[in-house]
Amino acid sequence: MVVGSVLVTGGTGYIGSFTALALLEADYKVVIVDNLYNSSDEVLNRLELISGKRPQYYQCDITDEKKLDQVFDEHPDIDNVIHFAALKAVGESGEIPLAYYNVNVYGTLCLLRSMQKHNVTNIVFSSSATVYGDATRFPNMIPIPEECPLGPTNPYGNTKFTVETMITDYVNSERAKAQKEGKSGDAFNAALLRYFNPAGSHPSGIMGEDPQGVPYNLLPLLAQVAVGKREKLLVFGDDYKSKDGTAIRDYIHILDLAEGHLVALNHLRSQHPGVRAWNLGTGKGSTVFDMIKAFSTAVGRDLPYQVVGRRAGDVLDLTANPTRANKELGWKAKLTLEDACADLWRWTENNPQGYRQQPPKEFIEA
Ligand code: NAD
Ligand code: WQD
């Protein structure tokens, strides 16, 4: 029995693919749109291998409103969207900000217009902890609650903040319009999910993060060190005010993060909260040295690193206060850093070329 239908933009990407899996396993019909800018359609085979179900897929750029219209036309049952498609590299966003505004902001505008035309009223949006900027400027706001004033510090963060605002204005206006017409307006809802640092892979070892270019996040870089693609990890600064001098982040297992999307969507559908932001994090901070240690343990040997200067734009501490999601969504991150590191290592060992190679034989023959 299908419980609902969801359009997942960016659904072949890292977080999108794991959320598609959670949705398929919860008996949602899943339709993916992605232009494969940073992903591979091999993900569809892996989703089918794990779940026994294959999502429908359209190669589609979200800035192509006509194509989005066609997808909605072909699937009139879609009544929810989970919106991942975006450019996401903080450093690059400073070099080509207009590309970031085009995909992240204009692409979302196209999506919302297309949703409006097709009466699709629930949207779950991939926001980011980056909207808080340097929350350490408010010492009483660490770990960071949703009430923390927003203050992104780079063009990528500005696009996420802008889209949060755009979605809020749109949903509130649709609710008000419906109320003026004597209806409740309850159908229009948005979840603004602010993720902290996603980590890990599927425990089967056949689904994981496979960035197309040079990775810039800590764990994919550590994985490259472990397989010898990179000589050592450069640790960006050991002069922060933390227990070991390195910066603190909240690393959340990708399966917990995906589950967070499922429960947020179910909450929109059953509780009709209007627009609501939720942090998806563990509430537990780990330093860069903690991460090197945890991943080295998973790999079974010490991984080489060298401390260098701080990276521009980095902040001391980005740890979530996840209490709101715990209470309102009944969601809590369950998996540990050790789980994330063990799963990431299994994926890296099994798939040194990422999705560019066949899955292990036992999966094909199973
Ligand atoms: P990802 O790059 O793996 O996934 C994004 C997907 O969007 C990719 O499959 C890419 O091909 C697709 N895409 C890009 N431009 C597109 C376009 N114009 N039209 C259609 N598809 C397009 O990234 P991810 O880590 O899975 O991130 C997913 C979302 O979560 C993004 O919105 C990102 O900003 C947000 N986010 C990510 C992190 C993180 O650390 N990974 C943290 C917070 C928020
Ligand atoms: C983690 C820690 C680095 C690489 C970014 C975005 C954020 C969100 C998640 C999308 C930091 C240190 C890293 C390396 C290192 N993405 N590090 N050596 O910067 O916390 O967050 O991704 O929304 O918006 O800013 O993640 O993985 O890059 O870094 O020492 O080679 O590891 O300094 O302390 P970050 P990260």
TrEMBL record:
Pathway: Carbohydrate metabolism; hexose metabolism; Carbohydrate metabolism; galactose metabolism. Mutarotase converts alpha-aldose to the beta-anomer. It is active on D-glucose, L-arabinose, D-xylose, D-galactose, maltose and lactose. This is UDP-glucose 4-epimerase. Residues 7-343 form the NAD(P)-binding domain. Pfam families: GDP_Man_Dehyd. The lineage of its organism: Eukaryota, Fungi, Dikarya, Ascomycota, Pezizomycotina. GO terms for biological process: galactose metabolic process. The keyword DNA damage does not apply. The keyword RNA-binding does not apply. SUPFAM superfamilies: NAD(P)-binding Rossmann-fold domains. Its EC number is 5.1.3.2. It comes from the Eukaryota. It is an enzyme of class 5 (isomerase). Keywords: Carbohydrate metabolism, Isomerase, NAD. It comes from Zasmidium cellare ATCC 36951. PANTHER family: UDP-GLUCOSE 4-EPIMERASE. InterPro entries: NAD(P)-bd_dom, NAD(P)-bd_dom_sf, UDP_G4E. It catalyses: UDP-alpha-D-glucose = UDP-alpha-D-galactose. Its cofactor is NAD(+). GO terms for cellular component: cytosol. In the N-terminal section; belongs to the NAD(P)-dependent epimerase/dehydratase family. Homodimer. GO terms for molecular function: UDP-glucose 4-epimerase activity.
